[in-house]
Design a protein that fits this description.
- This protein has 13 helices and no strands.
- With 298 residues, it is mainly α.
- Helix 2 packs parallel to helix 12, helix 3 runs antiparallel to helix 4 and helix 6 runs antiparallel to helix 11.
- It is globular and about 50 Å long.
- The two termini are 30 Å apart.
- InterPro entries: AA-Vitamin_Transporters, EamA_dom, EmrE-like.
Length: 298
C-alpha cells in the first residue's frame, strides 16, 4: 500500500473521529443549562461561575503539570486571551445571569444561534468562504431557531435575551480563536491554558462573591456545580476543540444546532419543564439543516 493510499484511508477515519468528538462536546454542553439551574439552588450567579472555573482550572492545571506540557509561545497568548474572555468568563457569566429570569428552554433556543455566529466569526477571521449551500442551510437553521424563540417569548426581547445575545458574540469569538489554535496545539492544551490563565481572577471573584451572595448547599446544587465544572467546562471544551481542529470550525459549529433541542429534552427530564408544542417540528427542521451543512463543502 502506498503512502497516498494510506493517507486516503486515514482522512475519512480522522473526519469521523473529529465528528464524534464534536458530538460528545455538544452532548456535554446540552446539559450545561439544566446543571446551571441546579447549581443556582446552592450558589449565587457570580459564585457559581467563579467556583466552576476554579475547579475546572485546577483539573486542567493538574493535567498540564502531569504530562509536562510546555507553556505556549508568546505569539499564542493573544488568541488564548480571546478564548479565556469569551469561553471561560463571558459565556458562562452571561448565560448564568440570563437563567435567573429565563427558562432553560428559552435560553437554549436563543443560544441555538451560536453555530451561525461562530461560522461568521470564523469566515471573517480566516478569510475562508464556505459554499452557498452551506450558508443557506446555516441561515435556514438560524431562522428556525429565531422563529422558535420569538414564538416562545411572545415576540418580546427581555433583559435575559440581551444577556444571551451578548453570550453568543463572545462565545463565537472564543470558539473561533480556540478552533484556530487547536490546529497548532492539542485542543485540551488550548482550553487548559485558558482556564489556568483565568485562575487568579476567578479565585478573587470566588472569595468576594461568596461573601455577599447566599450559600445553601444541597445535593442537587452541588451536582450541578460538579457537572458545569468537570463536564461542561473541562471535558466538553476538550473534546469540542479537538473535534473543531479535525473537521473545521464551520462544520463543527453546525453540529451545535442540535444543542438547544437536546437541552429542551434535558429540561423536561431533569427540571420538569413543560415541552413546547413547537419543539418537534423545530427539531426536524434543524436536524435537516445539520444534514445539509455536513454534506456541503466548506
Amino acid at each position: 500500500m502506498t503512502a497516498q493510499d494510506s493517507a486516503t484511508r486515514t482522512a475519512p477515519v480522522a473526519v469521523t473521529g473529529g465528528t464524534l468528538l464534536a458530538v460528545a462536546g455538544v452532548l456535554s454542553f446540552s446539559l450545561t443549562f439544566p446543571a446551571t439551574v441546579w447549581g443556582l439552588e446552592s450558589f449565587g450567579p457570580w459564585s457559581l461561575v467563579a467556583i466552576r472555573n476554579v475547579l475546572a482550572a485546577l483539573m486542567a492545571g493538574g493535567f498540564l503539570l502531569a504530562v509536562r506540557v510546555p507553556v505556549p509561545e508568546r505569539r499564542h497568548w493573544g488568541a488564548l486571551a480571546v478564548v479565556a474572555s469569551g469561553v471561560v468568563l463571558g459565556f458562562p457569566m452571561l448565560t448564568t445571569l440570563a437563567l435567573q429570569t429565563s427558562t432553560t428552554a428559552h435560553a437554549a433556543v436563543v443560544v441555538g444561534l451560536l453555530p451561525l455566529s461562530t461560522a461568521a466569526f470564523s469566515a471573517l477571521r480566516t478569510g475562508r468562504r464556505p459554499s452557498r449551500t452551506f450558508w443557506g442551510a446555516a441561515v435556514a437553521g438560524a431562522g428556525v431557531v429565531i422563529a422558535f424563540t420569538l414564538q416562545q417569548s411572545g415576540g418580546a426581547v427581555s433583559t435575559g435575551d440581551l444577556y444571551l445575545f451578548g453570550a453568543l458574540l463572545v462565545c463565537a469569538a472564543g470558539y473561533t480563536e480556540g478552533g484556530r489554535l487547536a490546529r497548532l496545539m492539542p485542543g485540551w492544551h488550548v482550553i487548559g491554558w485558558a482556564l489556568v490563565a483565568c485562575l487568579p481572577l476567578n479565585l478573587v471573584v470566588s472569595a468576594v462573591a461568596l461573601s455577599f451572595e447566599p450559600l445553601r448547599l444541597t445535593a442537587q446544587g452541588m451536582t450541578g456545580l460538579v457537572w458545569v465544572a468537570a463536564g461542561s467546562t473541562f471535558f466538553g471544551l476538550y473534546v469540542w476543540y479537538r473535534g473543531m481542529a479535525t473537521i473545521g470550525v464551520e462544520k463543527a459549529s453546525q453540529l451545535q444546532l442540535a444543542q438547544p433541542l437536546l437541552t429542551l429534552v434535558w429540561s423536561v427530564l431533569l427540571l420538569g419543564e413543560k415541552p413546547a408544542t413547537a419543539a418537534p417540528p423545530a427539531a426536524v427542521a434543524v436536524l435537516l439543516c445539520i444534514a445539509v451543512t455536513q454534506r456541503a463543502r466548506a
